[in-house]
Task: structure prediction
Amino acid sequence: MTALVAPLDTIPEEIRRDVERRLGTPGLHLLQDALGPVWLVTLSPQPTGGHRLELEDAVLDGDQLVVYVQHIAPSPGAIVTQAFTYPHLLFRLTDRDLPDPIVLVRPEGLRFKVHRDTEGVFA
Result:
């Protein structure tokens, strides 16, 4: 299973608009374009710059796909923008025959399960 991070400037305009509408709503969102599914992971608004999400791994675990995402916060004392930011991560999975469900694992150990035809919001 290979996961490819999709920079925002490489996806179609309709997906970009969809991403912008979802920023600030924490969750795992399934978007579609001509090439197939694009996954969007979003955090709640952060009070400063310097926050980002990194895709650590995507592995098959039995009959489900587990996606590991890490939230990287700025170092203590780092000089950062003093404005709200909306960390997000877009990625594609190269395997067209994805299992159902897909589980997103965040660093806090929270597991979030989403089915391919739905999307979810973190509690």
